[in-house]
Design a protein that fits this description.
This protein is an all-alpha fold and 168 residues long. It has 9 helices and no strands.
């Protein structure tokens, strides 16, 4: 099965103009690692399919690879899969599943998921508005260097100092 998939990928790459042996070897190696359950390899293949990078863009394939990586706790895969569920690309749109995946990704340290949740709580979009939760997630993202999170946190703390420990 794996051998047949590898042959198919190489044939598709060559027919698409990707005749460079190094690229085909890299893709074949990544596919083999993914088949063995390597979360990072599944994530990289998910990215390739979602972006159409080196392969034909296929959101359903992206969902499948991201899901395998996400099941193994890969935070970036959880985030990417959440985005696909949120938008309904390659999968039926499911806001609840997306939210659950955003939370998992954020808890595992994905800065974009942390910022996404902060914005949702700050605006009350899709969740009950909670400035306390917004501050929590803005701080997490800002601590990782997310400039927009830091700016939103600054503004929220100016408007509501008690949330940030500055207003007793």
């Amino acid at each position: 099965m794996i051998k047949n998939l590898l042959i198919l990928f190489v044939v598709l790459l060559v027919s698409a103009g990707f005749s460079q042996p190094a690229f085909a070897d890299s893709l074949a190696s990544t596919l083999k690692k993914a088949e063995q359950g390597d979360a990072s390899a599944n994530y990289r293949l998910g990215l390739a399919y979602s972006k159409g990078s080196g392969v034909r863009q296929d959101y359903r394939q992206a969902v499948a690879f991201f899901a395998k990586a996400a099941e193994n706790g890969h935070a970036d895969a959880q985030y990417e899969l959440a985005c696909l569920y949120y938008t309904g690309m390659g999968v039926e749109r499911d806001a609840q599943k997306a939210r659950s995946l955003y939370v998992q990704a954020a808890e595992h340290g994905n800065v974009e998921a942390q910022y996404f949740l902060a914005r949702k709580y700050d605006q009350g979009r899709g969740v009950k508005k909670s400035h306390k939760k917004a501050v929590f997630w803005y701080k997490k993202a800002a601590d990782q260097g997310h400039a927009n999170a830091a700016e939103h946190l600054r503004k929220l703390c100016e408007a509501r100092p008690a949330l940030c420990g500055d207003g007793g």
